[in-house]
């Protein structure tokens, strides 16, 4: 009797292993097909000015849009995560130093990467949050590219990005935006500019940078990867609805909340948001509280 039970349990276990292996193989093939898909897009001309005003705006955008958070403070790239199960997530060196971009990397290549989440070959970039950058105004996109083009070369050779089993499954089930090019309207018209003033419109524009973590409705939810904390509701129905403008600004500049908590920069990048101007933070507060 015991021998029959053991045989049954062994058969069940082997069946589960075979089914799991088959499903993972299917998921891995499907994910790689998504990585290799070629997109046909039409790039509109963009005038790039390298004057001091544009470069200053581009540098500011590189901080508040998270470029320096992901690609390192000097934009020379870094290994963000190296997990045996998840994978090795690496952000590239954005300068033209050793290990960085090729010498002939053009303005069109920058537009593809930032606005469309695509490589020079029109295949998807991994984890590049272009679903947010796609909404940049023409003025901001041009300024950001101008600043990136002005970077001094940094010699930094990095290991290749590698997606491991858990990363493959999270990508397959769309738990992480590994293929942002799929989330973009590649034919969307670019807005020329949004006035940098305290307004609902400016706040809505800025809140695009919050949507990657807090979801498109900004109401948060479960953490994006296993083990990560719950993502907060930052609309008027969450804590932001209870905070004053001053408390909101203090939280985004110091990481300290009115409730006496200290925000973990790994999950709420207040070291990035502290670079927002008063005008930007006031606009963001107005918009979030209105939701």
Structure commentary:
The mean pLDDT is 91. Helix 1 crosses helix 7, helix 2 (52-64) packs across helix 6 (138-149) and helix 10 crosses helix 12 (278-290). The radius of gyration is 22 Å and the shape is globular. The protein has helices spanning 2-36, 52-64, 67-71, 107-116, 130-133, 138-149, 165-172, 200-206, 211-214, 245-254, 270-273, 278-290, and strands spanning 78-83, 87-91, 162-163. The chain has a three-stranded antiparallel sheet with strand order 1-2-3. With 291 residues, it is mainly alpha-helical. It has two domains: 37-191, no CATH class; 194-291, Cytochrome Bc1 Complex, Chain D, domain 2. Strand 1 (78-83) and strand 2 (87-91) form a beta hairpin.
| Continuous helix count | 12
How big is the Rg? 22 Å
| General shape | globular
Helix content bin: 40-55%
Count of beta strands: 3
Structural class: mainly alpha
In order across it, which strands form the biggest sheet?
Answer: 1-2-3
| Percent strand | under 5%
Uncertain spans, ≥5 residues at pLDDT below 50?
Answer: none
Query: For the report, how would you describe the main beta sheet?
Result: 3 strands, antiparallel
Summarize the structure.
The chain is mainly alpha-helical. The chain has twelve helices and three strands, in the order αααββαααβαααααα.
Which characteristics define this entry?
291 residues; mainly alpha; 3-stranded antiparallel beta sheet; 12 helices
């Amino acid at each position: 009797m015991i021998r029959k039970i053991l045989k049954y349990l062994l058969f069940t276990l082997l069946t589960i292993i075979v089914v799991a292996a088959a499903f993972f193989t299917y998921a891995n093939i499907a994910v790689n097909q998504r990585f290799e898909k070629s997109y046909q897009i039409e790039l509109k001309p963009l005038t790039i000015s390298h004057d001091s005003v544009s470069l200053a705006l581009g540098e500011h955008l590189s901080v508040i849009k998270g470029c320096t958070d992901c690609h390192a403070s000097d934009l020379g790239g870094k290994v963000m995560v190296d997990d045996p199960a998840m994978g090795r997530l690496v952000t590239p060196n954005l300068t033209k130093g050793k290990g960085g971009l090729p010498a002939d990397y053009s303005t069109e290549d920058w537009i593809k990467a930032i606005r469309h989440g695509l490589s020079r070959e029109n295949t998807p970039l991994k984890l590049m949050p272009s679903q947010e950058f796609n909404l940049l105004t023409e003025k901001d996109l041009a300024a950001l590219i101008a600043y990136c083009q002005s970077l001094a070369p940094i010699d930094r050779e990095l290991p290749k990005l590698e997606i491991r089993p858990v990363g493959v499954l999270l990508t397959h089930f769309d738990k992480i935006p590994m293929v942002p090019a799929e989330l973009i309207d590649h034919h969307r018209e670019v807005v020329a500019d949004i006035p940098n003033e305290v307004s609902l419109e400016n706040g809505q524009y800025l809140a695009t940078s919050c949507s990657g973590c807090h979801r498109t409705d900004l109401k948060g939810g479960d953490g994006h990867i296993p083990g990560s904390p719950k993502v907060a509701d930052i609309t008027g129905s969450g804590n932001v609805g209870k905070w004053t403008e001053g408390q909101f600004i203090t939280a985004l500049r110091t990481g300290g909340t009115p409730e006496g908590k200290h925000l973990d920069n790994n999950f709420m990048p207040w070291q990035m948001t502290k670079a927002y101007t008063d005008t930007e933070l006031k606009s963001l507060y107005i918009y979030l509280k209105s939701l």
